[in-house]
Queue: 3 jobs
Job 1
Amino acid sequence: MGRYYGEAAIPDQMRRNFDVYDRIKSLGISLGSFDADVVSLANAGIAAAVIHESGLVYLSGTSGGTLPMNDDEDRIKHGQQGAQEAADVLIRRLHWALSCGGEGDLNDVLYTVKALGMVVTPGGGVTSAGPPVTNGFSFRWHSLFGGGKSDFAQNGVDPGGFAGVHARSAIGGFDGRFSIEPEIIVAVPSALCRDIIRNRGWVFPLPPVMLEKVKAARS
């Protein structure tokens, strides 16, 4: 378990009892590599993640799926798979945002806070595809951190807890050449956020000077 997680103000009955990275391996989620995923912020228009000293980490959205959504069952399944793949991208991003400077990792995540799923449903969003498609994103976080719709849950209860369950909005009506763009906010110990900010700043990817600092510390 993460060293910051152990000091967090969480009831003992709601603490995770598993290593998040064991679930990542079981779910087949790729975490990439430092060289590929920890890059410079130079010329970037937006941040992939912003770390706030209060303990919140804001992750920018990423697209998933290749088809617009409607009420067709196979189309919704395509969107759900794309949403799950988008979750895996943000899980990888969160791993490096927390760990690239050696401060913490995914075991320090306290719980997920709020997700937003923006589903491509051309024609004014006159389908009910938004929530079921976004479930592909939400339930992946259940599987990673715990939740009633987790791959590890039985009868609606995950033995690992409920830290993957979050508040959520799922809306449609957008045009685009993809299925969904989801984003999420997660909570980590404020002490971890402060240590990250002191060491390398609040933004990920890293400003060039901070990237060089982190690389030098690893060598």
Job 2
Amino acid sequence: MSDCQQYLKIQSRRDFLVKSGMGLGAFGLASLINPGRLRADNDQSIHHNDLSLPHFAPKAKRVIYLLQSGAPSQIDLFDPKPELVRRYGEELPESVRQGQRLTGMTAGQTSFPMAGSLFSFQQYGHSGAWFSELLPHQAKIADELCFIRSMYTDAINHDPAVTFIQTGSQFPGRPAIGSWIDYGLGSDNENLPSFIVLITKHNGGQPLYARLWGNGFLPAQHQGVQFRAGSDPVLYLNNPPGVGMADRKVQLELLKKMQEGQYESFKDPEIEARIAQYEMAFRMQTSVPEITDTSDEPDYIYDMYGPDSRTPGTYAANCLLARRLAEKGVKFIQLYHRGWDHHDDLPKHLPRLTRQTDQPSAALILDLKQRGLLDDTLVIWGGEFGRTNYSQGVLSKTNYGRDHHPKCFTIWMAGAGIKSGLTYGQTDEFSYNIVRDPVHVHDFQATLMHLMGIDHERFNFKFQGRRYRLTDVHGKVVKGILA
């Protein structure tokens, strides 16, 4: 070896880490021996003088995120506005709209008639939270919920908005929240992925792309794994005909040796990620059929979640499955329900969506609570933005549609570390602008990370010369909703 080659080898950070036993292979081995100890404190992520993750004692051990894709109307569900009802059909005052950006679907309208909700509202619980008549089951658990009425976002169209609330950026390519959590905190169950995705089947609505639960620039094993309804919950997981578990194990060992040889030649961390994925897939061949078979659930549980819970792939069945996954230690469970994009005929279509989601959402909270899991599980319900107070298209006495509205919308949170029975933030009497305690998407994400024991400003990953984080360069913890 020449002096130049020896100098370059000495200066190789990766070679030093490998030889000192702290290389990527050691991290991979550690994840198999004790997955819960896998942390993101390597040279690509957090500064070495930072505390190892979690940064402080977490309030939440896991998250169940019920994302209602398409944007539910806050005006018709959680944020009643009597003034809109009184002034039904009148023009939205310019002093309220203030020339704010509109979508291409209503920018050409010459009239913006206000449409108060046709559904009645009532207060429930000791907290006096407001619920639409469309949500009788959630109304019964009013004192378990914390409403944020003052959410706002930067995006006005679906794809950038849902990408933003899921990844912290409107542009594709960033890691999803669940991937960040998995990368930073590791797994509590070596036989199941730490980040699992459930999508309601056959519900139409805006498309959902796999990049919403993708790993972005993080190692590939941290991407979300989608569970589907049917005999093959995870694609390509089952052995083909004629191949038994013993055969598959031999194949896996041979693949591992080949990949390890390739890693020794190229030192590519994605090879290590591939090995980890192969090994996880092998373990999942046993764990996935067991967890997705809900036939052992008693009848009263099915009754709690509603009749749809017996049909795999429905929202109700996925809520029940989310509880089972939470029991098994899965850290981040992402549930998507589409169809909330009501540009027309909202009074006709919205009740169908609430019938699908109201009872199962409430049942999930009650089920977690009766099992003692709500104390350390964070549950989130909400969409990517809100809906306009004026009608898109023609307004009648019995019908209206609502366009996208990024300036204010409502979500609710429940469980670990959250003040129950609280309504946080306030919109104006037209539900068009925020007048108190605004909460940006990055604030929401910072708060979620905080509840998991992570300081969002210190948790980052170096990629292409820059340190990235979920909240980019913004975001503050919303302390007013913390218990």
Job 3
Amino acid sequence: MNSETRTLLNRLGLPQRLTGLAVGCEWHPASGSPLAVRSPIDGAELAVIGTARPEDVAQASAAAHEAFLAWRMVPAPVRGEFVRRLGMALREHKEDLAALVTLEAGKIVAESLGEVQEMIDICDFAVGLSRQLEGRTMPSERPAHRLMEQWHPLGPVGVITAFNFPVAVWAWNAALAWVCGDTVVWKPSEKTPLCALACQAIVNGVVGSLPGCPAALSSVVIGGRDVGQALAAAVRLPLISATGSVPMGRAVGQAVAARLGRSLLELGGNNGMIVTPSADLELATRAITFAAAGTCGQRCTTLRRLIVHNSRADELLTRLKKVYERLAIGDPRQSETLVGPLIDEAAWQAMQAALAEATAAGGRVIGGDRVTQGVPAGGVYVRPALVEIVPGAPIVQRETFAPILYVMRYEALEEAIRIHNDVPQGLSSAIITTDVREAESFMAADGSDCGLANVNIGTSGAEIGGAFGGEKETGGGRESGSDSWRAYMRRQTNTINFGSDLPLAQGIRFDP
């Protein structure tokens, strides 16, 4: 580990000896296989840490359960105070944590700062929520009776996250779980473990500042697929929230369902945008470029399918080609860079396989080549690709986690919506139009079938105030804002008899 990285980790509160197992505020030796953590920027080794074993999940979930028994009885506004203090700590560490996200995930600095800001925003949201976990009161059909609903803490929550948002997605889950009275066991991606350990260190500092906080409010288990499988199978974790690929989510969902637990799945996106005849092409170009090329195409909300009206397609493609030619590709730590590296060599191989399949299907590929000049050696840098292709090509049905934008043409809006919906995934979608009828049609019941439907913005950049998630193979889960907090609680219906008689519901008489 170089001195610059060590200094950064020190400022974030990480111990000198790094370990992949943190149970509450205690760092435990991890006896699993050592994991070499490398930066996608230049392939440099950042650290070597021991990983957790499947049996360590049992230790972490047991500690989380014991902490939950105490935490659930802490008043919700006091739980909110814990999250408020965490938000303040994140503000103090924002630049350092963002620098670590850039170093470990390869995001440009602006996007890394934005990700940490999402963490701060969800903390603010959760603090307000801590005084609004309200139930409902309903009239009873029986005299002198009242019906009411309460929402109680659910239990320890297992959180599995992906490399592309190494801190924000955990925070979406954890902040809501904590104010709801739950505790958290986190399995991050093996590609970004240092970000998780840094978050755990920040949480530990906040736990120590607030009397009455159980130490095991948060735990981290770093490991491979076997650790994830153990988390999904852990009966003491009534909810598993998992973000990642469709195959991973299917495996998690089946494992959790086998024990009749709950799963919250946020899986693949194959996101589309329709550009109509009335579209503002300047606005469209800007929206498309960030959505398709931002984060080097490694967002679940990345724009992957562009469906353009025939009358505007040539002009829009000309604009996009010019913008793509001048995209600044390189070291994400440099302020002028707009597109950083792919996460690893496997991502490059997947991108090339997809482009080869698109070419074989008659697609015309522009870009998509490897960039080797003016970029750090050892990283995987690519030029984002535009691919003109027919809607029915099989490759268009699948998500490739790389900056590939498939461009298709249409004549009628109904055809565009059909093309848009004709994929297995259903996360994010957009339409660029100045016609209110087209916009409303896109958001109607027979319009976009996605969990997110946007007008005159791209598919990326969701705010924490709205619930985030999608339909079909995307998993159906919802994270972050709106009423997503209900996933982290259990509903209880109460009937209160405040009279002296005992009338039965539905008019039943039972007089022994």
